[in-house]
């Protein structure tokens, strides 16, 4: 049974769209798509960007605490912390924890987690 060429075109387009979405999260805030109707801040979730090649262990040692984080991206030198997750407990309040994180001079940025809707320009449906 032959697979229609349209199926392969669909797979390629789907892969490209998923790669574009992944790249947005790796961009510095200054290069993110403009905030506005296409951007939504997720309450109580933050992205912490560490200095290049600064380890998470060094960060914990510097601030004197090992925090319960949601995700850590070693290659991007950043981690997410989520204060709204009931499964993760924090010893300090959200404000105190963020102040503690910012006290480390090797933290480049602490910013709210945002979700962006990107217009890929693809509006036509593939017809076989």
What is shown here, in short?
Residues 1-19 form the signal peptide. The protein has helices spanning 5-26, 56-63, 94-102, and strands at 39-50, 71-73, 78-82, 107-116. The longest helix is centred in the first third of the chain and has 22 residues, at 5-26.
Q: What does this protein structure show overall?
A:
Keywords: Signal. The chain has 128 residues and is α+β, with helices and mostly antiparallel strands. The chain has a domain of 78 residues: Alpha-Beta Plaits, CATH 3.30.70. 30% of the residues lie in helices and 23% in strands. The protein contains three helices and four strands; from the N terminus they run αβαββαβ. It has a four-stranded antiparallel β-sheet with strand order 2-3-1-4. The longest helix has 22 residues. The relative contact order is 0.23. About 14% of the residues have low confidence.
- In oligomeric terms, what are we looking at? single chain
| Named CATH topology of the domain at 39-116 | Alpha-Beta Plaits
| Helicity range | 25-40%
Principal-axes shape call: elongated
The CATH architecture of the domain at 39-116 can be given as 2-Layer Sandwich
What is the H/E order?
HEHEEHE
Q: Major sheet, described briefly?
A: 4 strands, antiparallel
Q: What average pLDDT do the residues reach? A: 75
Keywords: Signal
Signal peptide: 1-19
Which keywords apply here?
alpha+beta, Alpha-Beta Plaits, 4 strands
SSE topology sketch:
Elements: H1 5-26, E1 39-50, H2 56-63, E2 71-73, E3 78-82, H3 94-102, E4 107-116
Antiparallel strand pairs: 1-3, 1-4, 2-3
């Amino acid at each position: 049974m032959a697979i229609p060429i349209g199926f392969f075109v669909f797979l390629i387009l789907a892969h490209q769209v998923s790669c574009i979405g992944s790249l947005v999260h790796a961009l510095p805030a200054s290069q993110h798509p403009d905030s506005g109707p296409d951007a939504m801040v997720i309450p109580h979730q933050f992205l912490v960007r560490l200095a290049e090649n600064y380890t998470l262990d060094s960060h914990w040692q510097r601030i004197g605490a090992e925090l319960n984080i949601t995700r850590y991206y070693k290659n991007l030198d950043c981690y997410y912390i989520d204060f709204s997750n009931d499964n993760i407990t924090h010893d300090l309040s959200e404000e105190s924890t963020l102040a503690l994180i910012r006290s480390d001079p090797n933290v480049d940025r602490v910013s709210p987690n945002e979700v962006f809707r990107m217009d890929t320009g693809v509006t036509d449906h593939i017809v076989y």
